[in-house]
Structures are given as C-alpha cells and as structure tokens.
C-alpha cells in the first residue's frame, strides 16, 4: 500500500505530538526537496504569518494545542510548523501543492457516495499515513495524513459519521483569517453537516478550499467553496464532480488561478458524471477517479505533471444511515483497505 495505517489516542497536545513523531524521520528530507518549502522561507517572521497564527489561536484554541504538539513531536520551531501549515494561504500560484478531484453521488437506494483522488507532491507516494485518531473531547476521525500537516485537508471522516474531502483552490486574496488547513481540520470535530457548513461560513478564512461534505445522519451532500471572499454552500442533487478551481455561481467571479490540469480534469469529470444513472455504484466512482483519458488526466501519474502533483491514493466513501465505509485504493496495484469509520476499533 502507498501509506501505513496508524492509530493515535490522547488529548489535543498528545495527538499533535504523536503526529509529529510519526513524521519526524522524514520531515527534514521532505522539506529539503520541496519547492514549496523553498518558496515559503521568505515568509519567516512576516507580520502576516503572525496574524494568521493569532487568528488560529483565537478561533480554534483546541487546534492550536494540536499544532503546538505537532511542533513538539517534529522537533521543529512552532513558527516553522505554522508556516508549513499556512502554505496554501501564502502561496497562491502553487497553493499547497495538493491538487485533487472529488465526485459525489446519491444512489437510488439512498446510499450516498463520495470519492476523491488525493493529489500531492510525487515525493510523498508511499510516504504518507492513514491515521485513526481518538480524541478525549471530540468524535475522533480517520484521515489521510501528510507529514507535518494537521490532518483534515485531504480526505477523512469522523466517528459521528461526517465525511469530508478537500480540493485545493488557488485564490489570490490574502486577508486576515484562519488558515484554511486548520479550518479543514476543525470540520472533523463537527457532529453534523449543518455544524460543518456553519463553521466554514462563519469563520474568517485566509485561504480557499473546496469541501465535499456528507453524513451518515443526513441524506444531503454539500459542495462548499470556502474562500476569503465568500462561502458558497450548494446541496448536491444526484451527482457532482469538482477539481481545483471555483465553479459555483457565487464564487467563480473571484480572482483565482486555473491551471490547465484543473480545467481539463473539471471538464472530463463533469462529462463522466453526466453519464451516471441511479444504478451507479462505488465501482463507477473509482473508475472515474482512475480515468486516464487526455494529456492531463484525472488520475495523475506523470512525473512531468505541470502542477507538480501525482495521485497518492484514491478514497471511496459509502455512506448509509448510521454507517460509513471507507475504501482506500492504490493508484497502481489498486489494492484496497476497508474501514468501518463509525465503529471505533478495539
């Protein structure tokens, strides 16, 4: 498998420290080869970074505890860990280096399906984790984990049955607000869809993400473009696809960067989902996310990808009433791990 499954438990700071220790052996080498880290270093000590930290501490104090624990576990200065976790708020042309494509479907039998390609730095293929986190004061969650980044900005689901997948948006604004990765992490502490949408709508945002949200306690699925300029939440009818730029009517007019890959993947995924019927299943979502048609396909394996991103893993969430099943696939061998999200393992 291109990732390892790890269980973590404790209070906020303990969980953060455990995540940091998990990444510590790789972190220095990872950052040394990262063009994103090179581009971030001039922001060290910048007043805007201090402002982002203050916004995070004020709005999300529990997650600030996690970030402090993460720095402790990584044995890195907190300021550098904050800088790394604000990369998408600071670097608009490259964003966080995390591309991604998401799809969603409401089946005729009431099952909700959400699928996601996690696209990121090709160096990370085989070097990430799937973390199963138990918290003392929140539902706990499963999430794909990038070294040194708070979980939540990839794909994940919590023990309350809330499902989230994230796509990078390359917005051009830099207002004061909560860093987008911390806000995505905060969603995994929410118990309901309405709570998650309200959090994204009401919290000041420094950067932009697209969130696909579903729940085992709610028949709805939401597509949310949460940006510095607006938080547009649209309920998905029966089928949906989203890449890495704003497409909602309420937000598409904002200044953004649309890469050729994002434009091509958006066009292709919309064409595929338009063919889906009420009989469509998770296998069809997986086939869509592993589609290789075109020069800039949905499944990204080209070492010369123009955005510098490759597909690291594919997630398929099957959401029923009171249950969520997560299946995670490798892009090559198509190996599968199956997890019952809402039942905490012994």
The ordered H/E elements are EHHHHHHEEEEEEHHEEEEHHEEE
- CATH class equals Alpha Beta
CATH topology description: Penicillin V Acylase, Chain A
Biggest sheet features: 8 strands, mixed
Strand content is 25-35%
* Count of helix runs: 10
What is the rounded distance between the termini? 23 Å
CATH superfamily: Penicillin V Acylase, Chain A
Give the rounded overall mean pLDDT.
94
**From the structure provided, what is the oligomeric state, counting identical versus distinct chains?**
single chain
| Largest sheet, spatial ordering of strands | 1-4-5-6-7-8-9-10
The radius of gyration over CA amounts to: 18 Å
Helical proportion, percent range: 25-40%
Q: Which CATH architecture is right?
A: 4-Layer Sandwich
Which ranges are low-confidence, i.e. pLDDT below 50, for 5 or more consecutive residues? none
The class by helix and strand makeup works out as: alpha+beta
Tally of separate domains: 1
